[in-house]
Amino acid sequence: MPSDDALQQAAPALLLPRIRFVLVETSLSGNIGATARAMKNMGLSRLALVRPKQGARFADADAVARASGADDLLQAATLHDSLAEALAGCRLVLGTSARLRALEWPLLDAEGGGARLLAEAAHGDVALVLGREATGLRNDELALCHYLVQIPTNPDFSSLNIAAAAQVFAYEIRRQLIRRPVGSAAVADERPELATADEMEGFHAHLMHTLLAIGYADAEQCGTLARRLRRLFHRARPDRTELNILRGVLAKVAGRPGAEPDRRSG
Predict the structure, then answer these.
(1) pLDDT number for residue 181
(2) Closest of 246, 220, 223, 222 to residue 233, by C-alpha
């Protein structure tokens, strides 16, 4: 078995490529470039963009100038039509916000968020989601996240530039990586077959369809119910077998006695 020292030396190559920074509907291309620079400073490389204002032309002169040598991250960045698509394959998702929400969400500070991302990356892909410059993440987008993560700032002036926020989180990830043995930075759920974000999305769609079909939920008033159920299952973090069981139950409840569970989520 490799020693702790050997694991520590291998950690950047093993863990950092599994950590995904996801930017949602970024307005300024310069902020994308500056985020790429912040990531590369700390050894991170996976950048995903959800509907940037410039579309596929986001890597313009301003983005390249602000990237200041991190052009390779811009070239390798992936473009997505939805946040759910950008999170495909992730076992853990953290959503950033400068404000708390009416529906309480599990909360981490920047240090705890960096530690949790690093610890969970030992077992699979993870993501940190940063929202729009002016308005941040919508509630339905935060509902795709397991935790809300915040940087402790001046409460009278709490909004950070998106690239500045990315730098803080990237630094916390790097700090946890170099200061502690692998796996000791935070308690991680070590089950290797946890359902991924896209698999959970399939389940939630199935769940709400069933609740509407049996008359438990109202199509015009089910938003809060859906978010509460998401929060419940995010806490539980089912594995793929458990998720397949739940979808089998939903199929029975919906009155399809001969139906088989959707194997795509298991």
Answers:
(1) 56
(2) 246
CA distance 71 to 117: 25
Q: Which of 204, 194, 201, 203 is nearest to 239 (CA)?
A: 194
How many domains in the chain? 2
Return phi, psi of residue 46, to 5°.
-95, 110
Give, for 49, the enclosing helix (H) or strand (E): strand 46-50
Phi/psi of residue 194, nearest 5 degrees: -60, 145
Strand partners, 22: 48, 129
Distance CA 89, CA 19 (A): 11
Report pLDDT digits (tens) over 138-176: 988 999 999 999 998 888 888 889 999 999 999 999 998
Q: Where are the alpha helices (DSSP H) in 42-161?
A: 61-67, 71-76, 83-86, 110-121, 139-142
Same structural domain for residues 137 and 57?
A: yes
Q: What tens digit of pLDDT does each residue of 192-247 get? A: 788 888 888 898 889 888 888 888 888 777 788 888 888 888 888 888 888 889 98
Whether residues 162 and 260 share a domain: the answer is: no
Q: Cβ distance 67 to 37 under 8 Å?
A: yes
